[in-house]
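Help wanted!
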Amino acid sequence: MILTNTTNYFGDLVSFLAEKMGIGGQILAYVIVAAVYLGFFAIAGLLLVYIERRVAAFFQLRLGPNRVGPHGIFQTIADALKLLSKEIFGTNRKDNLLYTTAYYLVIIAALVSLSVIPFSIGVQAYDLNIGVFFISAVSSVGVLGILFGGWGSNNKYSLIGGMRSGLQMISYELSSGLAILTIILLAGTLQMSGIIEAQRDTWFILKGHIPAWIAFFIFVIAGTAESNRTPFDLPEGEAELGAGYHSEYSGMGFAYFFLAEFINMFIIAAVGVTLFFGGWLAPFGITDTLPWQPLWGAVWFFLKVAVFIFFMMWFRWTFPRLRIDQLLTLEWKYLLPIGLLNIVLMAVIVYYNVLISF
Amino acid sequence: MEKIMFYILSAVIVVFAALSVTSRKLYRATMYLLYVLIAVSGLYFMMEYDFMGAVQLSVYAGGIMVLFIYAVMMTDKIGQPMRSISAKRKILPFIVTMGTAALAIYAIYSYQGISKVNEATVTKVSQIGEKLLTYEAGGYVLPFEVISILLLAVMIAAIVIAKAKKLVNQEKN
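Answered by r_m:
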């Protein structure tokens, strides 16, 4: 795969500062990139919580937060400040080390996954040649944070919540992995920028027609399950488990789990958009001739991600929560066999070149 | 820069490996082991062998560790610290470990074939795929096929186990 555009603004910054200031500049550049990502993490998290609440309100014919700032956009910032100033309060029989490292693991896994997502042309911290695989590998480490949190809290509800979460995320990782592989057959590369470049003529959702749609549905279902969202939010089913694995967390400890959940949703949406809807590419290349290409790329990327996220929020208010046996039945009896057959179907279609392309 | 990173990762590996075997709390020991595995994957990423690093993360840190955690939960009284083993029972494991370590160090130092590589070569996934599927010298098609049949059998078995109740009911009827 020959890439037509190989600029990387973060990489340029690192090499520029390294040239100017040597090793200190290199470290400074890394710190700047990390700060940019942390800032994005916080802003996206807060914004997504606000959007979620507004969307939820509209689905229930309410207004939602509309008092703090215009249309209530500062509501989540006020909430975050409240959580920051709150006392960290936990049980005295918790396993302190596990309890405190749990949310860092979850949040680091989410942050590291963000680093390979291409936000626009060249706006990507690290263009690994195994990008998609890297995301699924790192997100599998995030499960352990939840398991540690569930155990470290020393509370039966937390423990059950953590166990359910581990079970669910590991099961559904298989299906989302198979869905990703199906698309990799079309792309012929695991590199995020390469996958987008391969869709320059036709997005994979159109190019792969039937198997691509099946893979897309499997990916959305598995992605929703992996980010522990309704209808798959058994790990924190409030009717049964209090708040699940984060029952015993207060203040920022709880906020970290909460933020990580929303960032995971963003990551699922971003990966979905990159794999199926051409990432930052404009539909039919309508903005390709305009100046400020990276800006337009970001506009299209975030627009697509926003639509994707809106659908995931829509699920939340449409489907009732599954029982644990229904959840496992769905994965092991339906999604996994369908995913396996689908990958064979896609291989046949790619081999005989029965693809749609404009 | 790379040297510093290497020393940090090595320190993490050594410290947490020691902690994971000396910790009296079983659940914490698994957490220390997780850090060891993540640091090892960091070493792979440093060598720009990204594929191996990601495999290390997803298979060991993500898969095997969860298995360990579920296995640890099956053990007795994990909430309490484990009782310490008497000094007499420590002697034999100590000799065996030291012997293995000495053998490994001897093997590494007596091996002459190690050459220093200054520039890391980036291995593409497609190269790995081609190597796995060639019949020619240096190809791994037979082990690859055997393993894939094994894994397919495991996957089908998982589905069959999930459907076991239904199958038993059908036989009864």
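OP: Thanks! One thing I noticed: Chain B touches chain A through 31 residues (CB under 8 Å).
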